[in-house]
Amino acid sequence: DQQVKQNSPSLSVQEGRISILNCDYTNSMFDYFLWYKKYPAEGPTFLISISSIKDKNEDGRFTVFLNKSAKHLSLHIVPSQPGDSAVYFCAARGGTYKYIFGTGTRLKVLA
Amino acid sequence: SAVISQKPSRDICQRGTSLTIQCQVDSQVTMMFWYRQQPGQSLTLIATANQGSEATYESGFVIDKFPISRPNLTFSTLTVSNMSPEDSSIYLCSVGRLETNYGYTFGSGTRLTVV
């Protein structure tokens, strides 16, 4: 039972354009969400977060949107850069400290 | 944020043997976790490493297969015991901090291949 889903395993975007990565979840009790970026041979690194009491959080080129009624969050990267090419994971907090991760989306930004 | 050193970074092991993975953090942390990422899968929590007491395992993971030690607030080990090819995965140590809503900082991972 996959509680956090990233239905697009891969995404290709031209440099300078917007990248939109999507994540769906099933548990309405999730109260905090994270996005991580992972390069090959490295551990995931924290990118941006959002609390369930908000619907948007912005940090530079990265914006996360949360639609609680649809149980959906998305990560927007504008403008996309070749260095953004990585695997992106969303994660939802299912307890005091436990996060459940999606399967990841591989983003490729084309120069 | 905390800096995590994890080793080995990779290993190829014979089935039936055991491998111990070490995780060293540059500062004291309350929460330390071990994750597994199987090929093409998401990150799955194996257990929470508790300082001075037995680890707390998630459903599907048992102490006999994945014994964990945490002798202090900066160090932990995970052993993968009696390995089979199905144990081939990336194993990741991570720490959580209250001030980041327990958002995790991850080590670089150990890529394990069992042959």
Entry summary:
In chain A, 0% of the residues lie in helices and 55% in strands.
Can you give a write-up of this model?
The complex is a heterodimer of chains A (111) and B (115). Chain A is mostly beta strands. Chain A has strands spanning 4-5, 10-14, 19-25, 32-38, 45-51, 56-59, 62-67, 72-77, 86-93, 99-101, 105-110. In chain A, β4 and β5 form a beta hairpin. The relative contact order of chain A is 0.34. The model of chain A has no long low-confidence stretch (mean pLDDT 93). With 115 residues, chain B is mainly β. Chain B is built from no helices and eleven strands. Chain B has strands spanning 4-7, 10-13, 19-25, 31-37, 43-49, 56-57, 68-72, 75-80, 89-96, 104-106, 110-114. In chain B, strands 2, 4, 5, 6, 9, 10 and 11 form a seven-stranded mixed β-sheet that branches. A four-stranded antiparallel β-sheet of chain B has the order 1-3-8-7, with no helix packed on it. In chain B, a hairpin with a 6-residue loop joins β5 and β6. Chain B starts with a strand and ends with a strand. The mean pLDDT of chain B is 91. The A-B interface holds A 2, 4, 32, 34, 36, 41-46, 49, 51, 89, 91, 93, 96-104 and B 1, 4, 6, 9, 31, 40-45, 48, 92, 94, 96, 100-109, 111.
Order of helices and strands of chain A: EEEEEEEEEEE
| Mean pLDDT figure of chain B | 91
Rg of chain A is 13 Å
The end-to-end distance of chain B, rounded to whole angstroms, is 36 Å
Tell me, what's the shape of chain B?
Answer: globular
Can you summarize the main beta sheet of chain A?
6 strands, mixed
> What is the beta-strand fraction of chain A?
over 45%
